[in-house]
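Weekly puzzle thread! Below is a chain. First person to post its structure in token form gets bragging rights.
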Amino acid sequence: MNEILTKADFYFGPRYRKSPFFEATRRAGCKAWGIYNHMYIPNYYDDPIEEYRALTEDVTLWDVSVERIVEITGPDASEFTNRLTPRDLTKCAVGQGKYVLITAEDGGIVNEPVLLRIGENRWWLALSDSDAGLWARGYAVGCGLDVTVREPEIYPVQVQGPKSAQVMTALFGEEVTKIRYYWTMETDLDGIPVVISRTGWSAEVGFEIYLRDPGRGEELWDRIMEAGAPHRIRPIAPSQIRRIEAGIFRYGADMTIENNPFEIMGLERLVEDQSADYIGKDALMRIGAEGVSRKLVGVVLDGEDRIPACPDIAPVYRDGEEIGTVTVIVWSPRLARNIGYVWVPIELAGPGNALEVTTLSGTAPGKTAAVPFVDPRKSVPSQDLVA
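Winning reply:
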């Protein structure tokens, strides 16, 4: 487990928002919450290893309403959205989604949301933990384009795991199995309006259900749990173990606005060659040509014993000299190893370089590694589904 839990009272007040599923998560036994995009997010129901097994063997339900939706509409919505990201959105069809970066003028990463094109001139950004909605509103003020940027009352949950297709089929019919990876479908569940996408933070087979009527949150939650009961569904927190196995990064911990895509292993692919202008293009073209001095890569610690990881960013050493930092370490049951992410000088970014990583019990030897650690081609979440 990569976070330290201590016994303490948690004060719920009006400063942070509760999701439409909040009371349902309490009934389900959530024991600890965090703050993400100014909302409460479930962080802990049970031992993370047990939650991981439920995710990889059966099916799980996550309250991820904290993925606040920024909606961009208007005659110039497509051009405006394309200016926010180095991905080429002229290749994004209506109904399609993409993992994108929102970049600053110096190439720094403002956010790394999932983008969904809901309509011809309607785009959704499902945010990571930063105020990218304010960033988009600020840019809209002086850009000269006819757009409206707002945060509508839309709240997602995730249904993730190898049995998720059976649960979703029970709820929405066989049409849901025809949704391709990173595509969407608009529908309703007995009048509960939703958008469904084949996306998730687990790299397992999974779906996100975007609730469009917050007054029916508990009803939707209970319907999902009822449909999932034959498949041993259980609510869990977003799985840190599974996301690290899959090479998924967490904004604010693994990277911030101080980092650019070329510094994060695998994210350079999101800076696409295109004629259109976008915020940070000049800086990113220069950085890409000049190269970077450090990189965030994977690390595998030696030995098969589960190591208690530090709860905060900690030093990484080579031959006794501090050369970088570790952002996260978790125990992977699948790999029977402690794995995580480390910042290292670019000359050490390749796999197999020896390091000493700080843990709660001292330093532990390990080696740099490529990410993802598991299923690099995403063959599991992108597989064809059957009812």
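Puzzle host: Confirmed. Bonus trivia for everyone else. The mean pLDDT is 95.
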